[in-house]
Structure formats: C-alpha cells, structure tokens
Design goal:
The chain has about 60 residues and is an all-alpha fold. The protein has two helices and no strands.
Length: about 60
C-alpha cells in the first residue's frame, strides 16, 4: 500500500504542475476540457475539435 501511495503522490505533484500550466493558457470566461488520450493520428482529434470552434493544446 505504501508504494502505491507514493506513486499516486508523485502523480499528483505532476498533475498539479500540469493543471497550473493549463490554467495559465485558458482565458477567463472561457471553458476547457482536459482529456487523456492515446492517439495514432493527432489530426482526428484536432479536426473534430476545430469543427466545433475549439483548439487542442498538448
């Protein structure tokens, strides 16, 4: 259990950093979706989001 807790703790630290950086890129008054994906071709998601007026930030 201790090893699992340590691994989760290290992931949480990285997650906080990512969220902080992400928050700096989202303008006030706008919305964002955070998703974890596995992509063989990034154009599929890029095109789907662009069709709806959004942008993908990786």
């Amino acid at each position: 259990m201790l090893v699992g807790a340590l691994v989760d703790g290290s992931r949480l630290d990285k997650g906080d950093d990512v969220l902080s950086q992400f928050a700096e890129t989202v303008p006030p008054g706008t919305n964002a979706i955070i998703a974890e994906t596995v992509e063989e071709d990034v154009s599929i998601l890029n095109n789907a989001v662009a069709e709806r007026g959004g942008t993908v930030v990786r």
